[in-house]
């Protein structure tokens, strides 16, 4: 059975294993390639949008729609500028940014590889304002561009299939890989399994996400009140979905107290 699965899982063989992240310098497992993930993300994102109620410019939430577009575009521009200045523009290859506000009570947001962002309307009361949305969007986008998705999926693939497939490139149309993708991106989960981010990934997403939000003109000091509100929401009976993949605790808040002053150096307040 396992052999059969393995046989269908492996499409072609190319030797890859670990690679050093261009921005963080950290070595990451990457059995599943970024371009493959982007390809899967496009399909999954389209399907997700088709199955959900997407807020449009003409709806009763036109103000919120415009706000999400504005935050997204500002952050994406800040990231493009930041990467270009460091000579790392090619790291964003394949990025075709999209920002969608989706109707739903869930307190949740995500960014799939390739820049496919979703903010749930249920998150807006916790975010409270535009800077709050920028904090969470910066964080989600940082996970994507720091290739945390491919790292989490690679770990899951390695754990499931062992060393035999390390170095294999897996067919992106594969069902097993699709299920693992679902476990990484909870909203498209076909199972109840969720693969949470590691502490290292959370910390990186906080650090770079806030830096990008700051460069986009949003005050990084909003981060601590935002995540505190989120943690408080986590204490209620209706635990925000986002906390299942982004564990938040007191240690995280203490870490943010170090990250916020660092991000303040990048803060360029909006002139208008
Ligand atoms: Zn996170």
UniProtKB/TrEMBL annotation:
Cofactor(s) required, per the database record: Zn(2+)
A Pfam family hit: Peptidase_M48
Any single biological process term in GO: proteolysis involved in protein catabolic process
Keywords from the named record: Hydrolase, Metal-binding, Metalloprotease, Protease, Zinc
GO molecular function: metal ion binding; metalloendopeptidase activity
Record note on cofactor: Binds 1 zinc ion per subunit.
Domain Peptidase M48: 91-259
Keyword hit for Zinc: yes
Listed GO CC annotations: membrane
Family under the similarity heading: Belongs to the peptidase M48 family.
Protein name: M48 family metallopeptidase
């Amino acid at each position: 059975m396992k052999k059969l699965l393995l046989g269908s899982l492996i499409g072609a063989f190319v030797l890859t294993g670990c690679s050093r992240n261009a921005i963080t310098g950290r070595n990451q497992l990457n059995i599943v390639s970024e371009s493959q993930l982007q390809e899967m993300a496009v399909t999954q994102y389209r399907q997700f949008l088709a199955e959900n109620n997407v807020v449009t410019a003409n709806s009763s939430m036109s103000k919120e729609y415009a706000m999400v577009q504005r935050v997204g575009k500002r952050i994406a521009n800040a990231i493009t500028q930041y990467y270009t200045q460091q000579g790392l523009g090619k790291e964003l290859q394949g990025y075709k940014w999209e920002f969608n506000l989706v109707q739903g009570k869930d307190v949740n947001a995500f960014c799939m590889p390739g820049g496919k962002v979703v903010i749930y309307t249920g998150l807006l009361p916790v975010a409270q304002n535009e800077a709050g949305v920028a904090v969470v969007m910066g964080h989600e986008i940082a996970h994507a561009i720091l290739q945390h998705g491919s790292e989490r999926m690679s770990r899951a693939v390695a754990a499931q299939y062992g060393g035999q497939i390390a170095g294999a490139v897996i067919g992106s149309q594969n069902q097993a890989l699709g299920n693992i993708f679902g476990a990484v991106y909870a909203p498209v989960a076909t199972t109840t399994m969720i693969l949470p981010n590691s502490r290292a990934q959370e910390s990186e997403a906080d650090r770079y996400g806030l830096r990008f939000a700051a460069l986009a003109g949003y005050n990084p000091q909003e981060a601590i009140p935002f995540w505190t509100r989120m943690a408080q929401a986590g204490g209620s009976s209706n635990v925000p979905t986002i906390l299942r993949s982004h564990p938040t605790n007191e240690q995280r808040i203490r870490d943010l107290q170090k990250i916020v002053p660092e991000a303040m150096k990048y803060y360029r307040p909006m002139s208008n």
